[in-house]
Design brief:
The protein folds into two domains: 137 residues, Rossmann fold; 150 residues, Aspartate/ornithine carbamoyltransferase (Rossmann fold, 3-Layer(aba) Sandwich). Strands 7-6-5-8-9 form a five-stranded parallel sheet. Strands 2-1-3-4 form a four-stranded parallel sheet, sandwiched between helices. The protein has eleven helices and nine strands. The chain binds phosphoric acid mono(formamide)ester and norvaline.
């Protein structure tokens, strides 16, 4: 089987992505019923390169490999030769001689692509400045678990046109739902990513208008990792874009609220929003484990029945 990478949601076909979501739900049910008894990857290893901080991504990938019977290696540039200038492609060739797959969280998406181009084993994007596709697997899984097929539904992104927003745009393309993006002027998503989604995605400026009759509302921090020095300016520019309970009241009665987390209460969300029953962010975070298990399994074994 040719090596498959997962750098964006566009690396898998819509059919493969739908399979992955159903497989993730099935893996989750199996874990609940039987405990971690499904161990298809005994003694197999996943290298995890983290150039940015993480809680959920590290814990979910590491737990996934442990429950699968394998092992994950946490690699920080602070204590590997990557941090001392060893070329990315050399690292990719070396790791591929030893591990079964590699997961990378880094800044430059082009750097990730360069790594993948030199890797004989599957490479998974665990967040770049431009995309966060693993999070979208968990998000669409959560939405599907709670509301059934997402096809033809309407999601609303409130806030920065960032890496998460770009992955929501790709999700709208691949899973065939409508996405309204509501951001302040100057914080739009990348034009090429937006244009490729055609009329599935629209840009709005008024949050209350954007959430009207929505099936799902989601947001993210106003300053992402690497933008810490812009925090104060962004807080000013995003005033009025805080998602609150009263904003959700404008959406459908059964609206869901998602947030990839970590959240900044009092900034992009009201201080109490995560306590509202419409917010399903803990289930969403937990689904990182199951969705990434389905992803690892797919990249290493292809489709698995059952
Ligand atoms: N949502 C997410 O990727 O969380 P971490 O940064 O904690 O991994
Ligand atoms: N947009 C955020 C997502 C964190 C999971 C960031 O890149 O920091």
């Amino acid at each position: 089987m040719a090596t498959r990478h997962f750098l964006t949601l566009l690396d898998l076909s819509p059919d493969e992505l739908r399979y992955l979501i159903q497989r993730a739900i099935s893996i989750k049910n199996g874990l609940k019923t039987h405990g971690p008894t499904y161990t298809p990857f005994a003694n197999r290893t996943l290298a995890m390169i983290f150039e940015k901080s993480s809680t959920r991504t590290r814990v979910s990938f590491e737990t996934a490999m442990a429950q699968f019977g394998g092992h994950a290696l946490f690699l920080s540039p602070r204590d590997t030769q990557l941090g001392r200038g060893e070329p990315i492609a050399d690292t990719a060739r070396v790791l591929a001689e030893m591990v079964d797959a590699v997961m990378i969280r880094t800044f430059s998406h082009e750097g990730l692509e360069a790594y993948a181009a030199a890797s004989k084993v599957p490479v998974i994007n665990a967040l770049t400045d431009d995309y966060h596709p693993c999070q979208l697997l968990a998000d669409v899984m959560t939405w599907t678990e709670l509301r059934g097929s997402v096809k033809g539904r309407t999601a609303v992104w409130i806030g920065d046109g960032n890496n998460m927003c770009h992955s929501w745009i790709n999700a709208a393309r691949q899973f065939d739902f409508q996405l309204r993006i509501c951001c302040p002027e100057g914080y739009e998503p990348r034009q090429d990513i937006l244009a490729a989604a055609g009329d599935r995605v629209s840009i709005l400026r008024d949050p209350l208008q954007a959430v009207a009759e929505a099936d799902l509302v989601t947001t993210d921090v106003w300053a992402s990792m690497g933008q810490e020095e812009e925090q104060a300016r962004r807080e000013a520019n995003f005033a009025g874009f805080q998602v609150s309970e009263t904003m959700l009241d404008r959406a459908k009665d059964d609206v869901l609220f998602l947030h990839c987390l970590p959240a900044h209460r009092g900034e992009e969300i009201s201080t109490t929003l995560l306590d509202d029953p419409r917010a399903v962010v803990w289930q969403e975070a937990g689904n990182r484990l199951h969705a990434q298990k389905a992803l690892i399994e797919f990249l290493l074994l292809g489709r698995v029945e059952g």
